[in-house]
Amino acid sequence: MYEQTLVKTVTPIKPNIIKRMNRYNKWEYGYNKEYDIVIISKNGKIGEILEIQNLCIALPPAPKEVQNTDNKWVAKDFPKELKNIKSIFDWESYPETFKSKWYAYIDQEFTRREEGFWFNNKNNPTYITGTHYMYLQWTKIDVGRPDYREANRLFFIFWEACKADKRCYGICYLKNRRSGFSFMASGETVNQATITSDARFGILSKSGADAKKMFTDKVVPISVNYPFFFKPIQDGMDRPKSELAYRVPASKLTKKSITEISEKQILEGLDTTIDWKNTGDNSYDGEKLRLLVHDESGKWERPDNILNNWRVTKTTLRLGSRIIGKCMMGSTSNALEKGGGNFKKLYHDSDVTRRNRNGQTSSGLYSLFIPMEWNYEGYIDAYGYPVFDTPKEPVFGVDGEYIDTGVIDFWENEVEGLKHDSDGLNEYYRQFPRTEEHAFRDEAKNSIFNLAKIYEQIDFNEDAVRQGFVNRGSFSWENGIKDSKVMFTPNNNGRFMVSWIPPKNLQNNVILKNGAKCPGNEHVGAFGCDSYDISGTTDGIGSKGSLHGLTKFSMEDVPPNTFFLEYVARPQTAEIFFEDMLMAIVFYGMPILAENNKPRLLYHLKRRGYRGFSMNRPDKIWNKLSVTEREIGGIPNTSEDIKQAHAAAIETYINNYVGYNENGAGNIYFNRTLNDWAKFDINKRTKYDATISSGLAIMACNRHLYHPKPKQEKQSLNIQIKRFNNKGIHSEIIK
């Protein structure tokens, strides 16, 4: 049975506190710092609290009774008596006796637009936001009215939280294909623009043509089909090509035209516009926007760069430190080199669990990923819920067709059929991802390693990590005394990721050889390290230090050929990094093979008495090492032979121990390293810290393969055979 992880109900506040605050309508719309929740209720009361992608969102309380005889969402037809009324001017011409009959209906629609709407769905009271209600009830899309989908309900709830949270610039939505984002974003644009005065709304896409198409094919028709009571005065053509302006036309501002409407009535417009821009880094630079729609953000290809554009457009949404506008960004992802890499960074920079001291994410946005199984056409039942598992009996779908297969089985069948087409499989993953890893799959042709096996392992690791195969933590000296015993402590903020802790008898196994400290578990495994020398860099970024631990076959009770430790970080100072490395190798009692072109780490080990832990380069015998290599150990990264040997080591390991084989899945649970392998470019090695250190760990564990073979000198045998002259009575030696 499939178990969803997208949303869950949480109880961060005691029920008695909620009850007391509800009594006095004390809950305010927006972010509540005391309880770390975002309240989207507008009536002073809260009910159920949902956690969606680590963001806690408080909904309004359910009413005592929810009237809905259909027991599912059904859009209500526009009353026939009102269909012929196209504008507020037409409405004004009707007698008061007619209008008074519809005041309650119109007021009700405005209330639902503002506060949201409750209806019974499959016998469950269900809340949708005002924006979602407007989308379902009053938005016209390419197939008519939109279907109700539970996935869209969660999207709009999350979006409402983004709008309510004063710390947030908007949403960064990672989606699957045909999820309806473009229509939902267009609907929200029109919804907000038609109730906002003196504001500007903008649209960007992967190209100017795409932005224009979204404007003309989605935004404008939605506006045209709004009922008259939601439709403000509009200037220009009914179906404009570049700008939709909700303002009083100049021709209407004459004395005669105003008098014709009413002598007492003052004609007013919102003075609000919706337009689109060509794609570029500086699009909307210098503008002030209430809403910016970023469609197809994961498909901006060079020279356009979504990261550069967001740095510019982010400023259009604020005045000083105050956020005055929001961004609605959504997309599937291209291959990493085709814009997907920039979008991936933007998405990860929008993680709500990582905030600065101002409470904002690095990007300012909040990331949301809804797996494909929630929103795949053909697998949504009549109530809008996804059919995850294959049903015992066919289920009636929202499209009027019966569903006899679960979406998970369907997806897995599609994946199985693409097993031998790496690029086709990765494209399918990106279009219909079940995990974030799927969404950012890269093209196989760009990798020098077996990408199919790498991605098999990544998929397996999604469950492995959730099951606690990997722990984050920190190392420290016992009682703070350096060069004593090292302790490992689980820590969510730790820099080490570990999948195996050695038993007590193998921990801190340091032995003395000729007075020098040496690793006692050299027969068990080894470390590889990509170090750095200076704490700061000119760009403030710099490459990270990286460490990997790998076991090998031994007679100990140790999982063989297993990467058990990953460290990819750049602490505040290089000295902290050096001490991290030292504590790790001491705790595991294993040697380390590090690049010696950045020698400070190796000198650090020598000064502390741990030269015996630093491996010499395995491809040379002792008397062939340089003076520095004899002093501190290590291996250079400049030799072409070493580069090739390093890549070959990783290639062999992947083919033998990564992905699925006759023994099951591999034992490397570090997706960061696997993704680094997938992207590795042997001609630009410095960018791939995890690949460098993991490859060195493999070489360290197999150093016997690189030992130089002694040259065999062939000596010619000088066998002198004496010859004799046998003439006569006595033989004589021929000289």
The assigned CATH architecture of the largest domain is 3-Layer(aba) Sandwich
Shape: elongated
Percent of residues in helices: 25-40%
Strand tally, please? 31
Structural class by sheet pairing and helices: alpha+beta
Instruction: Give the total of domains.
Output: 3
Radius of gyration: 34 Å
Strand residues, percent: 15-25%
Give a short account of the largest sheet: 7 strands, mixed
Our count of helices gives: 22
Q: Which descriptors would you attach to this protein?
A:
735 residues; 31 strands; 3 domains; alpha+beta; seven-stranded mixed sheet; Rossmann fold; Nucleotidyltransferase, domain 5
How would you explain this protein's 3D organization?
By secondary structure, the protein is α+β, with helices and mostly antiparallel strands. The chain has 22 helices and 31 strands. It has three domains: 62-370, Rossmann fold, CATH 3.40.50.300; 382-446, no CATH class; 471-706, Nucleotidyltransferase, domain 5. Helix content is 30%, strand content 17%. A hairpin with a 2-residue loop joins β6 (117-121) and β7. The chain is elongated and about 155 Å long. A seven-stranded mixed sheet has the order 10-11-9-12-15-8-16, with helices on both faces. Strands 20-19-21-26-25-24-27 form a seven-stranded mixed sheet.
Outline the fold blueprint.
Elements: E1 7-10, H1 15-23, E2 30-32, E3 37-39, E4 49-52, E5 55-58, H2 80-83, H3 88-92, H4 96-100, H5 103-115, E6 117-121, E7 124-128, H6 130-138, H7 150-164, E8 170-174, H8 181-193, E9 200-204, H9 208-224, E10 243-246, H10 255-261, E11 272-276, E12 291-295, H11 306-313, E13 318-319, E14 322-323, E15 326-331, H12 340-348, E16 365-369, E17 395-396, E18 402-403, H13 407-417, H14 422-431, H15 436-439, H16 451-466, E19 471-477, E20 486-490, E21 496-498, E22 510-513, E23 516-519, E24 525-530, E25 545-551, E26 563-569, H17 574-588, E27 592-594, H18 600-607, H19 627-632, H20 640-657, E28 660-661, E29 664-665, H21 671-679, H22 689-701, E30 724-725, E31 732-733
Parallel strand pairs: 3-5, 8-15, 8-16, 9-11, 9-12, 12-15, 24-27
Antiparallel strand pairs: 1-4, 2-3, 4-5, 6-7, 10-11, 13-14, 17-18, 19-20, 19-21, 21-26, 22-23, 24-25, 25-26, 28-29, 30-31
Helix pairs in contact: 5-6, 6-8, 8-9, 16-21, 20-22, 21-22
